[in-house]
Design a protein that fits this description.
By secondary structure, this protein is α/β, with parallel strands linked by helices. The chain has helices at 2-21, 50-64, 78-86, 103-109, 145-148, 160-172, 185-197, 212-215, 242-245, 247-254, 260-270, 279-289; strands at residues 29-30, 40-46, 69-75, 92-96, 113-130, 151-153, 179-181, 204-208, 218-220, 232-239. The chain contains twelve helices and ten strands. Strands 1, 2, 3, 4, 5, 8, 9 and 10 form an eight-stranded mixed β-sheet that branches. The protein is globular.
């Protein structure tokens, strides 16, 4: 069964690469049109997840300065991403959550992968409500189902956050009769924004670091049972053996660790209206303003 599943996901990865490469506007395709002579490195990220988008374009910028061509491929979900990495279709994923959120994928594919850097070491999964909400803890949800119509607004069905919410948080807090509505990160944010505009109650799945915390008036619900898991590191990962084949890239990636302040500034630029469709420009500006952001940063 595992071999069959792996084969299916590999096919899904190829399909996702083909489809998404043709449909993502100004940020798809090459990461900036570099003219490197060391070959092409393929970077993947999950479309709509801005931590991955931010880090992918940062790594792409640095690889081009090492004289590599870069091909950026947005994918639709974790399964195709991990399968693509394990099969060598993707060379680098710059924002993986393998310790907790994507632990099941790492268990399945980890023998064929390697991690080069933990670039952020305090990532957490959260359940959030507007700051004006009358509740403060996940313990309060079961007794207040009417406030939220017994529904949590989630993100993509295949996200690790979705799995943790369904399999851990909801059972732990007696939410068996509740619904976790899944579709996409963008759809979740639309529902959240509309509810806040109307001063209505809403509960959503979120995570830190994420730019929504600086854009929406929201608060995390307390998690006294620890059902959302422990803080974890965000990794830059690749197929096993990639670092040995590309020691210059491995050295670069190993030196990337970002503070909350530095990462927040990067994601804010990536998601700003000013740089919509121009992630390369956002990264160049960020580097000019943060020349010492990590130990191996390559300047122009």
């Amino acid at each position: 069964m595992k071999k069959k599943l792996t084969g299916f996901l590999a096919l899904a990865a190829v399909s996702a690469l083909t489809l998404t490469a043709c449909s993502n506007g100004g940020d798809s395709g090459n990461g900036g049109g570099g003219e490197g002579d060391k070959g092409t490195i393929t970077l993947g990220y999950i479309d709509g997840w801005t931590d991955g988008q931010s880090m992918t374009y940062l790594v792409a910028n640095q690889l081009e300065k090492l004289d590599y061509d870069v091909d950026i491929q947005p994918l639709t979900d974790n399964g195709p991403m991990y399968a693509g990495l394990a099969n060598g279709d993707i060379d680098i994923w710059a924002s993986a959550w393998p310790e907790v959120t994507q632990a099941s994928y790492w268990e399945e594919f980890g023998d064929d992968l390697e991690s080069h850097s933990v670039w952020y070491d305090n990532a957490v999964l959260t359940i959030a409500v507007p700051s004006y909400s009358s509740i403060d803890s996940m313990d309060d949800l079961a007794d207040n189902a009417d406030l939220f119509d017994g529904e949590i607004i989630g993100i993509e069905p295949g996200a690790g956050l979705t799995e943790v919410t369904q399999s851990s948080m909801m059972p732990a807090y007696g939410l068996d009769d509740w619904t976790l509505a899944t579709s996409s990160t963008a759809a979740m944010l639309t529902v959240l924004g509309n509810a806040i505009d109307k001063q209505e109650e809403v509960v959503v799945t979120l995570w830190r670091p994420f730019w929504a915390y600086s854009s929406y008036d929201i608060k995390d619900l307390e998690d006294p049972k620890g059902a959302m898991g422990d803080p974890e590191g965000l990794h830059i990962i690749s197929p096993a053996g990639f670092g040995t084949a590309h020691p210059d890239i491995a050295e670069l990636l190993a030196g990337i660790q970002l503070s909350d302040e530095a990462y927040g500034a990067l994601e804010s630029l990536i998601t700003s209206d000013e740089y919509e469709g121009d992630s390369e420009g956002a990264v160049e500006r960020w580097l000019s303003e943060n020349p010492d952001a990590f130990s191996t940063v390559i300047a122009d």
